[in-house]
Amino acid sequence: MAVTLAGSDIWAQRRRRVSELRARQGFARQLLDFYGALLGVQETAFQEAATALPAADDVAAYVAEVVVSRVVDVSLFAGPDRLRSELIHRLETERPVGMIERWIAGDEQPIVDRYLARAALGPVLEALDTKARARCGGPRDARHCPECGGPPQLSYFERSPDDLATGPRRLLCARCGATWGYPRMTCAGCGEEESAKLPVFSEHGTASGERGSVVRGLPGGAAGGPEHAVFPHMRIEACESCRRYILSIDLATERAAVLLVDEMAAIPLDLYARERGFSKVIPNLMGF
Ligand SMILES: [Zn+2]
Ligand SMILES: [Zn+2]
Predict the structure, then answer these.
(1) Of the bound ligands, which one is closest to the alpha carbon of residue 188?
(2) I need a surface site. Which of 34, 113, 163, 226 has the fewest CB within 10 A?
(3) Ligand nearest to the CA of 152
(4) pLDDT at position 271 over 90
(5) Which tens digits make up the pLDDT trace of 105-156?
(6) CATH number, domain at 221?
(7) Which residue has the higher pLDDT, 7 or 152?
(8) Are residue 34 and residue 78 in the same domain, yes or no?
(9) Do both 18 and 102 map to the same domain?
(10) Residues with beta carbon < 5 A to ion ligand 2?
């Protein structure tokens, strides 16, 4: 089945990138170890959903019944202390199916509820066809996923076919993993287009960093020029109008990058943006 073949690719790539970044980005090691453990559970959930094919109306119940307990187990085993205690506390009073339904609806919810809902539902939505995604709440406009209405987790530039230049810009959905095209130098949070209001920050030593706005003092040190940069392929795209930001990944610069994994492990860029008073369009699965 095509979905299964494509699926094993996705999961193998994510695992490969977790071990690459784990070796290279010591500051993200704990988070990547946890995410690596979670990936095993998510891959199983993906494969099972691709076979079971729950009906679009039953997705929340299916995920609550089949996937949640395994996500809880791995989170209690390998997750950070704070997540563990909050998870235990929330599960004493809240039913997981409600948390999943609120994430599907696009409603506000406590961070730990959102974590559990995303970790369990994400791989299932990735495995299912567009009908399950179409049941999700949220606007269908340029700044939201055309398939599920979810917000963008990250921005990226594709590799162009001739490999010589950076390709078109796309956004990747935080809820279902679909991607869609989006204009360059336009805020992914509010649509602002005036370039004076769209500061870009990248690491000192990278090409865009040398143009002025630089992130200094990163762990790993980027003082020695581009060859020492930790994030040569990433930048912070911020907006003075809505005071939000999104991380952007250039796949032409780093061919081995895997979008979700690279975004998650770029903690110093998130901290830098936050210090400057910007908040992310939506935090990633790990809360950054
Ligand atoms: Zn989506
Ligand atoms: Zn904006």
Answers:
(1) 2
(2) 163
(3) 1
(4) yes
(5) 999 999 999 999 999 999 999 999 899 999 999 999 999 999 999 999 999 9
(6) 3.90.1670.10
(7) 152
(8) yes
(9) yes
(10) 187, 189-190, 192, 239, 241-242
